[in-house]
């Protein structure tokens, strides 16, 4: 019984939730008492270890990584591994690279092998340290040589000027190397004794501050004495190696010697015997090999000649002196044919094919007999589509079918070239005007006369590039107009809009409306290869490389490759001193497909770059020329075309090119009229995906003529009544955010009554969006001309370069 004065809880009393104890894993384990459920434990539960086991596992992983790093350091440059390849890159014209190489060669208890074929190339063998190095010099002005050597180099040795560090050519070279991917590197500063003693400290501080832009927290190595050269060599041998993913998964080598054997049919094509040390992965003779800058080839045989840079000279029997050996290897000859062992010969049943394109069969489509229902539908559609045509008397039905109405004269398909969509799109003139223009031309030719003009040398030299300046000015105007009025075009007045834009369609929503990726594909898509699942194929290949042991020449072996059907120009380039770099290809990497690169505009590039211009691509170990498309980088299934390479955002570049498995770095260059290559964009390979839908948008604009509460009369979007009726289903929008649709045409001059979701402003603009899928041009060319080396003149203005002779 409750007392009369006791407090009772009301209906609004706060009710707190009870504590849910025993829900976490520890309590559940204690309550289970060690009992295990009948079902098998998932993998995630198996990985749940206690505290001590987690510590042991972390310790084991740390020890494994440490041992892997130490093993890599010990194998590089040792007896069982390839020589430590060091590429010397002088970054300044005043950099004393010759003095640096002389000091590196003057090592005690070391044997130096000088390669007389190429200046600045030599090998150092140090039996006491059980190390061997190979040094190759590349000039910063020779862009292709520097980038090709950096693809296979173990370390880069940058030689700086003690006062300025690097010049404009060296800075351009550094930009390209950082975009491609840098291996391990070191900075050497020879010639410091030439600086006056009072200015050495200030010069060193200035140089240290200057290199922080590219190399933060990197030590400078002075190179003036033999002791300092020994310190630099020790640093190169012991520093941690930086990995480049595209070369670690592929076998590659730098040619040490080469010999060309012409074929019986022609002297221009033959077998190229390339000797060098295998790096990266095991080299299989049945795989294809890519010679950088020259194309893909097959191998017929792998030989194992004696190692010319052996730390133990007793391994090679009957060897002459080292100088004679270097001369013989430089000339590509081998005097010890009896010591050459054949490692592998190509198996035709397992050898990769050189086929890069699919040969389309125009009769490949399956022809089936139509059913009765389809025949009835065809007859009904023919009855509906019957038209009345005025024909002369005596005309048969067959002849009448070829007579064209007045409304069908402009129904021919437009050219697929989309370079004329910037407001100045005009169709060809009528045939009637063509006859009069020919008569005017004949009269103009009769009235013209020839005159001899005096020439001024200075004026001609000054006005050599006037046409280029005018073209560049036009590009600047088009880029500016595209920024101010994106995708807007003028409706042509001499051609009906329904004919001019017959390949375009309207979309309810660009983001959510469906678009079939297999619809109306071009003929070029019949020539390419496509993966059912590209990412799955890529993972499967990489998993095979990591786990399975391939047959062939192991890493570190000195081998000779017999490359078949190689043009003689490859050997001529090697004799001129150009580096000869070979990469083995993964399966399918010789086949053509659609590659998508994710790039960003380089800060040094400011000139407008229009879509479908021919550009030069350095994609991993390949370089080629192509005409790309630019599109937005979004997560949607449709991507809007960009007409110019934007400087403020990342874009996707789409080209036809051979398949390459990412990760791979990409550099985009543009060639000038004088042969120089300008770096305009850098990035990486996004995916190999022909189904990426790139949509080109056109915007037709009109102006409100009369404005009502929720309606308006719009003009200047179309100029005839039929066009208004044709585009009536497409939704309208305005620049101020209103949505609407066409209600009916007014008159015969293109005025139309439109309904909107609100009242328009007098300064608003009515827009109509049209869309079409576009594809890149097939302009793939694997042969890229050598760039002209350039330096910046001291008297030249910023942005003006002077060509080197």
TrEMBL record:
| Top-level division of the source organism's lineage | Eukaryota
Biased composition range(s): Acidic residues: 325-335, 405-428
Major place of residence? nucleus
GO biological-process terms attached to the record: endonucleolytic cleavage of tricistronic rRNA transcript (SSU-rRNA, 5.8S rRNA, LSU-rRNA); maturation of SSU-rRNA from tricistronic rRNA transcript (SSU-rRNA, 5.8S rRNA, LSU-rRNA)
> Where does the record place it?
Nucleus, Nucleolus
A GO molecular function held by the record: GTPase activity
Which PROSITE patterns does the annotation name? G_BMS1 (PS51714)
List residues of the Bms1-type G domain: 82-242
Which keywords, in A-to-Z order, does the entry hold? Nucleus, Ribosome biogenesis
Q: Where is the composition biased (Basic residues)?
A: 16-28
Q: Where is this region: Disordered?
A: 1-37, 302-335, 347-388, 400-444
Q: Name one GO cellular component term.
A: nucleolus
Xref: InterPro entries = AARP2CN (IPR012948), Bms1/Tsr1 (IPR039761), BMS1_TSR1_C (IPR007034), G_Bms1/Tsr1_dom (IPR030387)
Family, according to the entry, reads as follows: Belongs to the TRAFAC class translation factor GTPase superfamily. Bms1-like GTPase family. TSR1 subfamily.
Q: Write out the function statement from the record.
A: Required during maturation of the 40S ribosomal subunit in the nucleolus.
Q: Give the protein's recorded name.
A: Pre-rRNA-processing protein TSR1 homolog
Tell me which species this is from.
Answer: Pavo cristatus (Indian peafowl)
């Amino acid at each position: 019984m409750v007392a009369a004065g006791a407090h009772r809880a009301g209906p609004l009393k706060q009710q707190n939730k009870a504590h849910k104890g025993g829900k976490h894993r520890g309590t559940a384990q204690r309550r289970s008492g060690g009992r295990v459920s009948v079902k098998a434990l998932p993998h995630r539960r198996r990985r749940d270890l206690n505290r001590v086991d987690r510590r042991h596992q972390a310790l084991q992983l740390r020890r494994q990584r440490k041992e892997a790093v130490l093993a890599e350091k010990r194998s590089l440059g040792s007896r069982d591994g390839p020589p430590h390849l060091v590429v010397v890159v002088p970054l300044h014209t005043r950099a004393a690279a010759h003095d640096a190489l002389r000091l590196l060669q003057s090592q005690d208890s070391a044997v130096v092998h000088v390669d007389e074929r190429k200046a600045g190339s030599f090998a150092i063998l140090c039996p006491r340290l059980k190390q061997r190095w190979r040094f190759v010099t590349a000039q910063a002005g020779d862009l292709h040589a520097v980038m090709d050597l950096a693809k296979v180099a173990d370390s880069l040795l940058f030689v700086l000027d003690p006062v300025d560090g690097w010049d404009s050519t060296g800075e351009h070279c550094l930009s390209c190397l950082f975009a491609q991917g840098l291996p391990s590197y070191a900075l050497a500063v020879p010639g410091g004794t030439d600086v006056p003693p009072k200015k050495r400290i200030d010069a060193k501080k200035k140089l240290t501050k200057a290199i922080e832009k590219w190399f933060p927290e990197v030590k400078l190595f002075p190179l003036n004495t033999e002791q300092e050269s020994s310190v630099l060599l020790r640093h190169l041998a012991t520093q941690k190696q930086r990995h480049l993913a595209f070369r670690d998964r592929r076998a590659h080598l730098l040619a040490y010697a080469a010999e060309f054997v012409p074929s019986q049919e022609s002297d221009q094509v033959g077998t190229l015997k390339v000797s060098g040390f295998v790096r990266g992965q095991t080299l299989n003779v049945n795989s294809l090999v890519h010679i950088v800058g020259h194309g893909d080839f097959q191998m017929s045989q792998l030989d194992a000649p004696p190692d010319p840079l052996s730390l133990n000279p007793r391994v090679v029997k009957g060897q002459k002196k080292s100088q004679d050996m270097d001369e013989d290897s430089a000339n590509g000859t081998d005097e010890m044919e009896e010591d050459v062992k054949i490692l592998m010969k190509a198996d035709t049943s397992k050898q990769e094919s050189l086929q890069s394109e699919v040969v389309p069969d125009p009769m490949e489509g399956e022809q089936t007999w139509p059913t009765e229902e389809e025949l009835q539908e065809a007859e009904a559609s023919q009855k509906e589509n019957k038209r009345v045509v005025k024909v002369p008397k005596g005309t048969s039905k067959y002849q009448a079918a070829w007579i064209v109405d007045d409304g069908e004269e402009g129904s021919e398909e437009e050219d697929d070239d989309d370079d004329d969509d910037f407001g100045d799109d005009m169709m060809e003139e009528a045939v009637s005007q063509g006859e009069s223009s020919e008569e005017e031309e004949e009269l103009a030719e009769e009235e013209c006369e020839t005159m001899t003009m005096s020439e001024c040398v200075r004026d001609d030299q000054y006005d050599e590039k006037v046409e280029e300046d005018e073209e560049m000015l036009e590009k600047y105007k088009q880029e500016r107009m595209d920024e101010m009025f994106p995708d807007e075009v003028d409706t042509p007045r001499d051609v009906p809009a329904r004919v001019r834009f017959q390949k375009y369609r309207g979309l309810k929503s660009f983001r959510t409306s469906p678009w079939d990726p297999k619809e109306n594909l071009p003929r070029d898509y019949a020539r390419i290869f496509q993966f059912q699942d590209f990412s799955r194929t890529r993972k499967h290949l990489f998993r095979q490389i990591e786990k399975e042991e391939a047959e062939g020449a192991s890493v570190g072996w000195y081998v000779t490759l017999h490359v078949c059907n190689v043009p003689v120009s490859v050997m001529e380039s090697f004799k001129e001193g150009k580096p000869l770099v070979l990469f083995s290809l993964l399966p399918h990497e010789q086949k053509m497909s659609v590659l998508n690169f994710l790039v960003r505009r380089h800060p040094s590039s400011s000139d407008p770059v229009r879509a479908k211009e021919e550009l030069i691509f350095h994609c991993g170990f390949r370089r080629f020329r192509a005409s790309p498309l630019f599109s937005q980088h979004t997560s949607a299934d449709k991507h809007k075309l960009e007409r110019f390479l934007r400087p403020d955002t990342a874009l996707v570049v789409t080209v036809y090119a051979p398949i390459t498995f990412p990760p791979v770095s990409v550099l985009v260059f543009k060639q000038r009229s004088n042969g120089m290559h300008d770096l305009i964009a850098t990035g990486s390979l996004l995916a190999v995906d022909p189904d990426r839908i790139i949509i080109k948008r056109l915007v037709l604009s009109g102006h409100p003529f009369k404005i009502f509460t929720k309606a308006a009369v719009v003009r200047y979007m179309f100029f005839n009544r039929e066009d208004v009726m044709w585009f009536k289903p497409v939704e309208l929008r305005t620049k101020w955010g209103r949505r609407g649709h066409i209600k009916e045409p007014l008159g015969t001059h293109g005025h139309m009554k439109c309904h909107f979701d609100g009242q328009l402003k007098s300064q608003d603009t009515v827009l109509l969006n049209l869309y079409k899928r576009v594809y890149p041009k097939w302009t793939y060319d694997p042969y890229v001309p050598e760039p002209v080396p350039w330096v910046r003149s001291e008297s030249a203005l910023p942005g003006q370069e002077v060509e080197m002779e």
